[in-house]
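FAQ

Q: What does a record look like?
A: Structure on top, sequence underneath. For example:
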């Protein structure tokens, strides 16, 4: 069996372009699907996949570990750049999809079999109107409370929000109080039985992240995500040590070595590796083993397209430390036209039952994808009140 072609299919889905990877073999009808979505880097990723394909054409697709080593270690530059490692991830997922189809087993069974019966999912409320944080914090808190109630009415028992605004390296109480008012409103609106997560989006400095973390600690958050830049490992560790809320990070960390440094400093309690940016299944399984050695939980980052979701769920069914899966279910109204999925979701509780189909259990409707061609993503720009650049 040989790889005959590797293609990318780009599908514009509102704020991002999904990048689907299709690995074609010389066996009639045997293809693998992966995803390599990377916002605002679509052209770079598709180009990187085309470059990597030259290493793989003619190779055996049922050797994903070997081919991962080829993609990562050859071409002289190791696979550290975000576009390169995302390209590797997309191809790797497609290769494992093929292996599952050849074995007639879901990918989770290739990795040792399911370790749980269900996976809980959560949704993302978004950031509300961040420009209102300083002007009308009460109205902004009501918006978050309304969004939280909508998520619960939609069956979710957990949700995430971006209630922390972008701030300068040091600020006073105003942004902290504004964020606290939003979280307080959500907690009051949903009660103690619903898990709330706050995503700082790595906007704060370590000092401001600590301020936000301490202010929000009394509200019993499920986790506190990216309270400062992931490069600030010591800052993350200091915040994690100072609050009772577990710190989560990892969506912008791509290599085993970077995760090693995060875990060694105890910079988080929850690892948010992204299967489309950390080497696919092959890379993620190494990271998961390292997390398990440190007793750090897994809650993968997954705001992308349907192949990424299928992969995140297959991974979750095989990993003991996996606690919850991020999902996007209403980003575009035609999402289910593009994909046929093997897993089932129970609306009450948004619980996922295992996929029974081979590989990732999904198929992509290429005709539907073609209806939504590439569009340039809208540049996200954030500036502070004094005109200096902030983090989006």
């Amino acid at each position: 069996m040989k790889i005959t072609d590797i293609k990318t299919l780009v599908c514009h889905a509102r704020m991002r372009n999904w990048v689907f990877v299709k690995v074609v073999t010389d066996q009639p009808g045997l293809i693998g699907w992966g995803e390599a979505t990377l916002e605002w880097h679509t052209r770079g990723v598709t180009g990187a996949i085309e470059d990597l394909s030259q290493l793989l054409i003619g190779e055996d697709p049922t050797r994903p570990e070997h081919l991962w080593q080829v993609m990562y270690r050859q071409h002289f530059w190791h696979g550290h750049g975000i576009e390169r490692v995302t390209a590797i991830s997309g191809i790797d997922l497609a290769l494992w999809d093929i292996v599952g189809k050849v074995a007639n087993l879901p990918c989770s069974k290739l990795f040792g079999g399911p370790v749980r019966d269900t996976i809980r999912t959560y949704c993302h409320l978004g950031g509300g109107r961040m420009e209102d944080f300083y002007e009308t914090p009460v109205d902004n808190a009501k918006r978050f409370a309304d969004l939280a109630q909508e998520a619960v009415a939609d069956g979710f028992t957990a949700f995430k929000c971006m209630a922390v605004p972008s701030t300068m390296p040091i600020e006073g109480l105003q942004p902290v109080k504004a964020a606290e008012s939003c979280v307080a409103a959500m907690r009051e609106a949903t009660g103690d039985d619903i898990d709330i997560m706050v995503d700082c989006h790595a906007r704060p400095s370590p000092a401001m992240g600590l301020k936000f973390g301490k202010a929000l600690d009394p509200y019993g958050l499920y986790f506190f995500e990216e309270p400062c830049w992931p490069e600030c490992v010591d800052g993350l560790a200091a915040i994690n040590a100072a609050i009772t809320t577990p710190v989560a990070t990892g969506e912008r960390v791509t290599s085993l070595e970077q995760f090693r440094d995060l875990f060694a400093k105890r910079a988080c309690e929850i690892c948010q590796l992204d299967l489309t940016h950390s080497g696919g299944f092959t890379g993620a399984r190494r990271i998961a083993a390292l997390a398990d050695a440190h007793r750090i939980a897994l809650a993968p980052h997954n705001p992308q397209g349907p192949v990424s979701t299928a992969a995140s769920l297959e991974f979750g069914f095989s990993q003991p430390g996996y606690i919850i899966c991020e999902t996007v279910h209403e980003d575009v109204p035609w999402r289910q036209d593009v994909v046929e999925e093997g897993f089932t979701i129970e609306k009450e509780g948004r619980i996922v039952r295992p996929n029974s189909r081979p590989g990732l259990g999904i198929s992509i409707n290429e005709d539907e994808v073609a209806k939504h061609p590439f569009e340039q993503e809208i540049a996200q720009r954030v500036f502070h009140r004094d005109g200096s650049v902030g983090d989006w």
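Q: Is there anything notable about this one?
A: The first strand starts at residue 3 and ends at 13.
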